[in-house]
Design brief:
This protein is an alpha/beta fold. It is built from 12 helices and 12 strands. It is found in: Cytoplasm.
């Protein structure tokens, strides 16, 4: 019997905790079919290092992914240079990028229903001469879409970003009417598509302290954000703001909202991670495929110890499964 959902899981940076998080999944029964996209030898070496007895099964498109405890399906990717835990190796970077490309193309081709990503190390990939600013931007390029949206979520809070991995000095210039319009439309549409929110209520943060204080602390709210939000409201998108970010994240506002739209990375994500670190999920909206990820980094200091917790990965899988099923329902309706 064909599994209702099959998800590709990339193991991330070989020196980090990603491989052992993938292996931990084999300790329990899994509802969606999980196929780990990685070098099989890396998983074998890490399983031996942390003392996990896991049977790794070669997976081929169209076959059923293992869900029984003790077994894990693997789509092998060549090119790994070293398997040392905790020790970054730029020679592994091309392999890491290839695992992402393999999973994404598998989703585009209908082989997988979605992809879940363990953490990568952006620095070492760039050190290898490969321009890489993050999963979000890489998948945008692979999928050939003009705009994507990064959203992190817990069961209680969703925070999407207008800009992502930019130096703070570049943020203001990047918040244009066009970008803000595209991001807001994607957020509204995908909340409806993937999360069954019939009429999303979105809180929008201002860029400046006190949302500009009527222009005394910056004019981005007056010149760009407010006029753009007013036009979007005419499209039946429910938007509140721009609101001061220091008071937006309070029950008064959040209790009746479905998502927050923050202007930049460190405006919204510290609040969300403080509220739910280790059980949050990173979601890429605006893609033609489903993609979720963990909310943490490679944790090189924990790699190879067997002490890393898989809570965020399990959440990413659960949300990825939910989104994939929603996408399938929409396709057949």
């Amino acid at each position: 019997m064909k599994q209702s959902v099959t998800l590709a899981l990339t193991a991330g940076e070989p020196a980090g905790i990603g491989p052992e998080l993938c292996l931990q999944l084999a300790l329990e029964e899994r509802q969606p079919g999980i196929v780990v996209v990685a070098c099989k030898h890396l998983l074998q070496a890490r399983a031996q290092l942390i003392g996990l007895a896991v049977e790794l099964e070669d997976w081929k498109p169209g076959s059923r992914a293992a869900t029984e405890p003790g077994r894990l399906s693997v789509l092998h990717v060549d090119g790994l240079a070293s398997t040392d835990a905790g020790k970054l190796d730029p020679a592994n970077s091309a392999y890491v990028v290839e695992t992402l490309r393999t999973a994404a193309r598998g989703c585009l081709d209908g082989i997988f229903d979605g992809m879940v990503t363990a953490p990568v190390h952006k620095g070492v990939i760039n050190d290898a001469g490969i321009a890489f600013s993050g999963h979000t931007e890489f998948l945008q390029e692979v999928c050939g879409v003009e705009r994507v949206v990064m959203m992190l979520a817990t069961d209680e809070l969703r925070v999407a970003l207008v800009t992502t991995h930019l130096p703070l000095k570049d943020v203001s210039a990047a918040i244009t009417p066009e970008r803000l319009t595209q991001v807001t439309r994607i957020l509204d549409a995908d909340l409806r598509k993937y999360f069954a929110v019939e009429h999303p209520v979105i809180l929008v943060a201002g860029l400046n302290p006190h949302a500009g204080e009527g222009g005394h602390l910056g004019r981005e709210e007056i010149d760009v954000i407010e006029p753009t939000l007013e036009k979007l409201r005419q499209e039946d998108i429910t938007l509140t703001g721009p609101l001061p970010a220091d008071t937006l994240f309070t029950p008064h506002w959040l209790d009746n909202a479905d998502a927050v739209l923050a202007m930049y990375h460190d405006q919204g994500l510290p609040v969300l991670k403080f509220q739910g670190f280790g059980r949050a999920v990173n979601i890429t909206l605006g893609l033609p495929i489903v993609r979720t990820s963990v909310d943490h980094g490679t944790a090189l200091d924990l790699a190879g110890t067997g002490k890393a917790g898989a809570g965020s990965l399990k959440t990413a899988i659960r949300v990825g499964e939910q989104m994939a099923k929603s996408a399938k329902r929409e396709t057949f309706e």
